[in-house]
Amino acid sequence: MFTVVFDLDGTLADTSADLIAAANACFRGLGHGDLLDPGQDALTAFHGGRAMLRLGFSRLGIEDDALVGSQYAPLLAAYAEGIDTHTRLYPGAVEAVLALREGGYRTAICTNKPEGLAELLLTRLGVRGLFDSLIGADTLPTRKPDVAPYVASVLRAGGDPRRSLLVGDTETDRRTAEAAGVPCILVSFGPEGAGIARLAPTAMLDDYADLPGLVERLRG
């Protein structure tokens, strides 16, 4: 059984606006107003909560890791509350995953989003049942690009890591696939756009409609 493993943020769904909103809620709570812009700062959103907090505080001339740390839990709470306000799955993603599953593939999620939040988001979006396993940033002691979460996502889906590939959108995903010794497909519609081709993945994906055929070619 061949397994297709997906990253979540920036690969299956554009979560940036809700992430930015959560960070801005923290800044407003401290009396600073909105320090991040959903459009301009979308790429930073995909680097995680602490990256967003650091960027916002840097615009006030503040470099304080303790302050960033103190706002991380409030950011997660704010994000959980509005996790699906603006987030949308990329066009064709559901249809592509369904086609893979109907074709006999197993499907899994390996994300650096905390597991509980990933479970919540996929459930709210109505697609949790499309994936045989989900490994988040805190499921194991390590996260991507360490290979352990990737391997666990495949094994928990009932697959063999040697018969799998990763669909992602960042250098972290590229490095994870390299560590696992598996093909890597990077999407051109993620936060970096077509420029992500600079990482020389096994293949690029411009449209989810092409994914089933691309997977079929790569598995051979």
UniProtKB/TrEMBL annotation:
Source species, domain of life: Bacteria
Protein's GO biological process: DNA repair
UniProt pathway annotation: Organic acid metabolism; glycolate biosynthesis; glycolate from 2-phosphoglycolate: step 1/1
Any one GO cellular component localisation term in the record: cytosol
InterPro entries associated with the record: HAD-like_hydrolase_sf, HAD-like_sf, HAD-SF_hydro_IA, HAD_2, HAD_sf, PGP-like_dom2
Top-level enzyme category: hydrolase
Catalytic activities: 2-phosphoglycolate + H2O = glycolate + phosphate
Its EC number(s): 3.1.3.18
A UniProt-annotated Pfam family: HAD_2
GO molecular function, one term: phosphoglycolate phosphatase activity
Residue ranges that the Swiss-Prot or TrEMBL entry lists as coiled coil: none
Family: Belongs to the HAD-like hydrolase superfamily. CbbY/CbbZ/Gph/YieH family.
Protein name, as recorded: phosphoglycolate phosphatase
Organism: Gemmobacter lanyuensis
